[in-house]
Protein backbone atom coordinates (compact mmCIF):
# COMPACT_ATOMS: atom_id res chain seq x y z
CA UNK A 1 0.00 0.00 0.00
CA UNK A 2 1.25 3.49 -0.84
CA UNK A 3 1.83 6.24 1.70
CA UNK A 4 -1.41 7.92 2.75
CA UNK A 5 0.57 11.04 3.57
CA UNK A 6 1.83 11.13 -0.02
CA UNK A 7 -1.67 10.53 -1.34
CA UNK A 8 -2.81 13.84 0.19
CA UNK A 9 0.29 15.72 -0.99
CA UNK A 10 -0.37 18.28 -3.75
CA UNK A 11 3.23 19.26 -4.43
CA UNK A 12 3.56 19.96 -8.15
CA UNK A 13 -0.21 20.29 -8.63
CA UNK A 14 -1.96 23.47 -9.72
CA UNK A 15 -5.36 24.82 -8.73
CA UNK A 16 -7.80 27.49 -9.88
CA UNK A 17 -10.28 28.55 -7.20
CA UNK A 18 -13.18 30.78 -8.23
CA UNK A 19 -14.81 32.95 -5.60
CA UNK A 20 -11.46 32.54 -3.90
CA UNK A 21 -11.03 35.94 -2.32
CA UNK A 22 -12.96 35.11 0.86
CA UNK A 23 -15.26 32.66 2.61
CA UNK A 24 -15.43 29.06 1.50
CA UNK A 25 -13.26 29.59 -1.57
CA UNK A 26 -10.43 31.10 0.45
CA UNK A 27 -10.75 28.31 3.03
CA UNK A 28 -10.32 25.72 0.28
CA UNK A 29 -7.40 27.65 -1.22
CA UNK A 30 -5.69 27.56 2.20
CA UNK A 31 -6.04 23.78 2.33
CA UNK A 32 -4.76 23.19 -1.20
CA UNK A 33 -1.89 25.65 -0.80
CA UNK A 34 -0.83 24.20 2.54
CA UNK A 35 -0.51 20.82 0.85
CA UNK A 36 1.77 22.25 -1.83
CA UNK A 37 -0.48 23.23 -4.74
CA UNK A 38 0.25 26.34 -6.78
CA UNK A 39 -2.85 28.53 -6.59
CA UNK A 40 -4.65 31.04 -8.79
CA UNK A 41 -7.57 32.80 -7.12
CA UNK A 42 -10.40 34.46 -8.98
CA UNK A 43 -13.25 36.78 -8.07
CA UNK A 44 -14.71 40.00 -9.44
CA UNK A 45 -12.75 42.55 -7.39
CA UNK A 46 -9.00 43.02 -7.64
CA UNK A 47 -8.80 44.60 -4.19
CA UNK A 48 -10.38 41.57 -2.53
CA UNK A 49 -8.01 39.29 -4.40
CA UNK A 50 -4.98 41.30 -3.29
CA UNK A 51 -6.17 40.99 0.30
CA UNK A 52 -6.60 37.23 -0.10
CA UNK A 53 -3.17 36.93 -1.68
CA UNK A 54 -1.68 38.75 1.32
CA UNK A 55 -3.61 36.52 3.72
CA UNK A 56 -2.26 33.38 2.06
CA UNK A 57 1.27 34.81 1.96
CA UNK A 58 1.18 35.15 5.76
CA UNK A 59 0.45 31.41 5.88
CA UNK A 60 3.43 30.70 3.64
CA UNK A 61 1.25 30.05 0.58
CA UNK A 62 2.15 31.72 -2.70
CA UNK A 63 -0.88 32.54 -4.82
CA UNK A 64 -1.56 34.52 -7.98
CA UNK A 65 -4.93 35.98 -8.98
CA UNK A 66 -7.09 37.00 -11.91
CA UNK A 67 -10.08 39.32 -11.55
CA UNK A 68 -13.01 38.05 -13.62
CA UNK A 69 -16.80 38.20 -13.64
CA UNK A 70 -18.03 34.65 -14.11
CA UNK A 71 -21.43 35.85 -15.27
CA UNK A 72 -19.72 36.90 -18.54
CA UNK A 73 -18.57 34.30 -21.06
CA UNK A 74 -15.69 36.46 -22.28
CA UNK A 75 -14.39 36.81 -18.71
CA UNK A 76 -14.63 33.06 -18.15
CA UNK A 77 -12.60 32.34 -21.28
CA UNK A 78 -10.04 34.98 -20.29
CA UNK A 79 -9.87 33.43 -16.82
CA UNK A 80 -9.29 29.93 -18.18
CA UNK A 81 -6.59 31.09 -20.57
CA UNK A 82 -4.97 33.29 -17.91
CA UNK A 83 -4.91 30.55 -15.30
CA UNK A 84 -3.36 28.08 -17.73
CA UNK A 85 -0.79 30.70 -18.75
CA UNK A 86 0.15 31.42 -15.13
CA UNK A 87 0.16 27.82 -13.94
CA UNK A 88 1.14 25.95 -17.10
CA UNK A 89 -1.87 23.65 -16.57
CA UNK A 90 -4.84 23.40 -14.23
CA UNK A 91 -4.97 20.12 -12.32
CA UNK A 92 -7.66 21.16 -9.82
CA UNK A 93 -10.65 23.38 -10.57
CA UNK A 94 -12.74 24.59 -7.63
CA UNK A 95 -16.01 26.05 -8.90
CA UNK A 96 -17.03 28.12 -5.89
CA UNK A 97 -18.23 31.48 -7.24
CA UNK A 98 -21.99 31.93 -6.75
CA UNK A 99 -24.81 34.10 -5.49
CA UNK A 100 -28.05 33.77 -3.56
CA UNK A 101 -31.41 35.55 -3.41
CA UNK A 102 -34.26 35.28 -0.96
CA UNK A 103 -37.86 36.13 -1.84
CA UNK A 104 -41.34 34.65 -1.75
CA UNK A 105 -41.71 32.39 -4.77
CA UNK A 106 -44.64 34.40 -6.11
CA UNK A 107 -42.61 37.62 -5.84
CA UNK A 108 -39.19 36.33 -6.91
CA UNK A 109 -37.81 38.66 -9.61
CA UNK A 110 -37.21 36.97 -12.95
CA UNK A 111 -33.97 38.93 -13.38
CA UNK A 112 -32.74 37.54 -10.05
CA UNK A 113 -33.66 34.02 -11.17
CA UNK A 114 -31.67 34.52 -14.36
CA UNK A 115 -28.71 35.96 -12.44
CA UNK A 116 -28.50 32.93 -10.17
CA UNK A 117 -28.90 30.41 -12.97
CA UNK A 118 -26.23 32.20 -14.97
CA UNK A 119 -23.65 32.42 -12.20
CA UNK A 120 -24.45 29.33 -10.12
CA UNK A 121 -24.69 26.73 -12.87
CA UNK A 122 -24.16 28.05 -16.41
CA UNK A 123 -20.80 29.58 -15.47
CA UNK A 124 -19.71 26.27 -13.90
CA UNK A 125 -20.35 24.51 -17.18
CA UNK A 126 -18.59 27.13 -19.29
CA UNK A 127 -15.48 27.29 -17.09
CA UNK A 128 -15.30 23.51 -16.65
CA UNK A 129 -15.61 23.10 -20.41
CA UNK A 130 -12.82 25.62 -21.02
CA UNK A 131 -10.44 24.13 -18.45
CA UNK A 132 -11.37 20.60 -19.48
CA UNK A 133 -10.66 20.90 -23.18
CA UNK A 134 -7.66 23.23 -22.83
CA UNK A 135 -5.85 21.53 -19.95
CA UNK A 136 -7.38 18.51 -18.21
CA UNK A 137 -8.37 16.38 -21.22
CA UNK A 138 -5.03 16.86 -23.04
CA UNK A 139 -3.18 16.03 -19.80
CA UNK A 140 -5.46 13.07 -18.98
CA UNK A 141 -5.79 14.34 -15.41
CA UNK A 142 -8.15 16.57 -13.50
CA UNK A 143 -9.96 17.11 -10.22
CA UNK A 144 -13.12 19.22 -10.42
CA UNK A 145 -14.76 20.28 -7.17
CA UNK A 146 -18.10 22.03 -7.43
CA UNK A 147 -19.64 23.92 -4.53
CA UNK A 148 -23.24 22.79 -4.25
CA UNK A 149 -25.20 23.28 -1.02
CA UNK A 150 -27.53 21.38 1.25
CA UNK A 151 -30.09 23.77 -0.29
CA UNK A 152 -29.67 21.79 -3.50
CA UNK A 153 -30.80 18.61 -1.74
CA UNK A 154 -34.19 19.80 -0.46
CA UNK A 155 -36.66 22.67 -0.71
CA UNK A 156 -37.14 25.81 1.37
CA UNK A 157 -40.06 27.27 3.26
CA UNK A 158 -40.99 29.64 6.06
CA UNK A 159 -38.51 32.45 6.65
CA UNK A 160 -36.00 31.10 4.14
CA UNK A 161 -37.58 31.00 0.68
CA UNK A 162 -34.82 30.71 -1.88
CA UNK A 163 -36.36 28.88 -4.80
CA UNK A 164 -33.87 30.05 -7.43
CA UNK A 165 -30.86 29.31 -5.21
CA UNK A 166 -32.16 25.84 -4.31
CA UNK A 167 -32.91 25.09 -7.94
CA UNK A 168 -29.50 26.25 -9.13
CA UNK A 169 -27.68 24.21 -6.47
CA UNK A 170 -29.80 21.18 -7.33
CA UNK A 171 -28.57 21.64 -10.88
CA UNK A 172 -24.98 21.72 -9.59
CA UNK A 173 -25.59 18.34 -7.96
CA UNK A 174 -26.63 16.65 -11.19
CA UNK A 175 -24.11 18.60 -13.29
CA UNK A 176 -21.43 17.11 -11.05
CA UNK A 177 -22.74 13.59 -11.66
CA UNK A 178 -23.15 14.11 -15.40
CA UNK A 179 -19.64 15.54 -15.71
CA UNK A 180 -18.24 12.55 -13.84
CA UNK A 181 -19.87 10.26 -16.39
CA UNK A 182 -18.66 12.32 -19.34
CA UNK A 183 -15.04 12.83 -18.39
CA UNK A 184 -14.10 9.82 -16.30
CA UNK A 185 -12.48 8.26 -19.36
CA UNK A 186 -10.07 11.22 -19.45
CA UNK A 187 -8.83 10.64 -15.90
CA UNK A 188 -10.93 13.52 -14.56
CA UNK A 189 -12.97 13.25 -11.38
CA UNK A 190 -15.96 15.47 -10.64
CA UNK A 191 -17.33 15.78 -7.12
CA UNK A 192 -19.28 18.34 -5.12
CA UNK A 193 -19.27 19.67 -1.60
CA UNK A 194 -22.68 20.52 -0.18
CA UNK A 195 -22.07 22.80 2.80
CA UNK A 196 -24.67 23.53 5.40
CA UNK A 197 -24.65 26.95 7.03
CA UNK A 198 -21.24 28.56 7.25
CA UNK A 199 -20.75 32.19 8.30
CA UNK A 200 -19.93 34.20 5.16
CA UNK A 201 -20.83 37.41 3.39
CA UNK A 202 -23.53 35.49 1.51
CA UNK A 203 -25.15 34.03 4.63
CA UNK A 204 -24.62 36.98 6.95
CA UNK A 205 -28.12 38.38 6.36
CA UNK A 206 -29.86 35.06 6.99
CA UNK A 207 -27.85 34.37 10.13
CA UNK A 208 -28.65 37.84 11.45
CA UNK A 209 -32.38 37.59 10.74
CA UNK A 210 -33.00 33.95 11.68
CA UNK A 211 -30.35 33.55 14.39
CA UNK A 212 -27.70 30.92 15.07
CA UNK A 213 -29.86 29.05 17.60
CA UNK A 214 -32.70 28.54 15.14
CA UNK A 215 -30.38 27.64 12.26
CA UNK A 216 -28.68 24.97 14.35
CA UNK A 217 -31.63 23.55 16.29
CA UNK A 218 -32.16 20.76 13.75
CA UNK A 219 -28.44 20.10 13.28
CA UNK A 220 -27.21 17.08 15.25
CA UNK A 221 -23.86 18.73 16.04
CA UNK A 222 -25.65 21.96 17.07
CA UNK A 223 -23.16 24.24 15.32
CA UNK A 224 -22.48 26.17 12.15
CA UNK A 225 -19.51 25.34 9.97
CA UNK A 226 -16.27 27.16 10.72
CA UNK A 227 -13.15 28.34 8.89
CA UNK A 228 -11.66 24.83 8.72
CA UNK A 229 -14.60 22.51 8.20
CA UNK A 230 -14.41 22.24 4.40
CA UNK A 231 -10.66 21.72 4.22
CA UNK A 232 -10.47 17.98 4.77
CA UNK A 233 -13.28 17.14 2.36
CA UNK A 234 -11.89 19.45 -0.31
CA UNK A 235 -8.44 17.93 0.06
CA UNK A 236 -9.85 14.42 -0.33
CA UNK A 237 -11.52 15.35 -3.62
CA UNK A 238 -8.48 17.32 -4.86
CA UNK A 239 -5.80 14.73 -4.14
CA UNK A 240 -4.91 11.20 -5.14
CA UNK A 241 -6.43 10.03 -1.86
CA UNK A 242 -9.75 10.42 -3.69
CA UNK A 243 -8.66 9.15 -7.10
CA UNK A 244 -11.39 6.48 -7.17
CA UNK A 245 -14.16 8.84 -6.05
CA UNK A 246 -16.20 10.62 -8.70
CA UNK A 247 -19.77 11.80 -9.18
CA UNK A 248 -20.28 12.12 -5.42
CA UNK A 249 -21.94 14.82 -3.33
CA UNK A 250 -20.58 15.21 0.19
CA UNK A 251 -22.70 17.17 2.65
CA UNK A 252 -20.60 19.04 5.20
CA UNK A 253 -23.48 20.12 7.37
CA UNK A 254 -23.16 18.87 10.94
CA UNK A 255 -25.52 16.01 10.16
CA UNK A 256 -28.49 18.11 8.99
CA UNK A 257 -29.24 16.10 5.84
CA UNK A 258 -28.95 12.81 7.71
CA UNK A 259 -31.76 13.88 10.01
CA UNK A 260 -33.87 15.34 7.21
CA UNK A 261 -33.53 12.23 5.07
CA UNK A 262 -34.69 10.01 7.93
CA UNK A 263 -37.67 12.12 8.97
From TrEMBL:
| Key words of the record | NADP, Oxidoreductase
Q: Which domain of life is it from?
A: Bacteria
> What single Pfam family name could you report for this chain, choosing any that match?
adh_short
Under Gene3D superfamilies, the record lists:
NAD(P)-binding Rossmann-like Domain
- Gene Ontology MF terms in the entry: oxidoreductase activity
Q: Which family does it belong to?
A: Belongs to the short-chain dehydrogenases/reductases (SDR) family.
For this protein, the record's NCBIfam families field holds: PRK08213.1
What is the designated name of this protein? Gluconate 5-dehydrogenase
Amino acid sequence: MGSIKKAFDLTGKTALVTGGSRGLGLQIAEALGEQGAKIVLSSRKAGDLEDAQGHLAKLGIKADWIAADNSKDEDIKRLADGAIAKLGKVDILVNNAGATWGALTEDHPIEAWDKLMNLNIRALFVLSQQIGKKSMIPNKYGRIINLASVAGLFGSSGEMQTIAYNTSKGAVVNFTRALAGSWGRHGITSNALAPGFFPSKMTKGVIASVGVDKLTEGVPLRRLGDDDDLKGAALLFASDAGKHITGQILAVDGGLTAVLSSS
